[in-house]
């Protein structure tokens, strides 16, 4: 069974913005690995469009001025469309407590004992 090739969303020459911070994944040997290269919102231009055959996804070579990086569609957006809103950070998970346990009792029991405070 042959799978249809997934077409690229963006053409060569398209002005784009990075939708996420882009870090060196090791593909730039003269730059420390994991160094921030382009911040979210950084402008660039697509200079080449390729295709990853096994994954059936388009790949974009984007010139961000400071470097040319390979990007996935999820990592860029048309500059004319602007950046999508950032997802808010997920709130910290609160430990579940039994419905009949008072919150104050759980918080004092879970907190480490302070030698200068008596807990009754």
UniProtKB/TrEMBL annotation:
| Membership in a protein family | Belongs to the NifZ family.
According to the UniProt entry, which residue ranges have a biased composition of type Pro residues? Answer: 85-95
Q: Which organism is it from?
A: Pseudaquabacterium rugosum
Q: Where is this region: Disordered?
A: 82-120
Per the record, a Pfam family? NifZ
Instruction: Reply yes or no: does the keyword Iron-sulfur apply.
Output: no
Q: What is this protein called?
A: Nitrogen fixation protein NifZ
The annotated regions of Low complexity compositional bias extend over: 101-120
Q: Which residues form a coiled coil?
A: none
Keywords, comma-separated and alphabetical: Nitrogen fixation
- Please give the superkingdom of this protein's source: Bacteria
Q: Tell me which InterPro entries the record gives.
A: Nitrogenase_MoFe_mat_NifZ (IPR007415)
């Amino acid at each position: 069974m042959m799978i249809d090739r997934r077409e690229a969303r963006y053409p060569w020459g398209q002005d784009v913005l990075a939708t996420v911070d882009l870090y060196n994944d090791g593909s730039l040997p003269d730059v420390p690995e994991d160094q921030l290269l382009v911040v979210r919102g950084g402008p660039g231009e697509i200079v080449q469009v390729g295709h990853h055959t096994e994954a059936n996804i388009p790949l974009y070579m984007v010139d961000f001025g400071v470097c040319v990086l390979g990007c996935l569609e999820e990592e860029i957006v048309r500059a004319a469309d602007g950046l999508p809103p950032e997802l808010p950070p997920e709130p910290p998970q609160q430990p579940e407590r039994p419905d009949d346990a008072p919150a104050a009792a759980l918080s004092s029991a879970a907190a480490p004992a302070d030698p200068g405070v008596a807990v009754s």
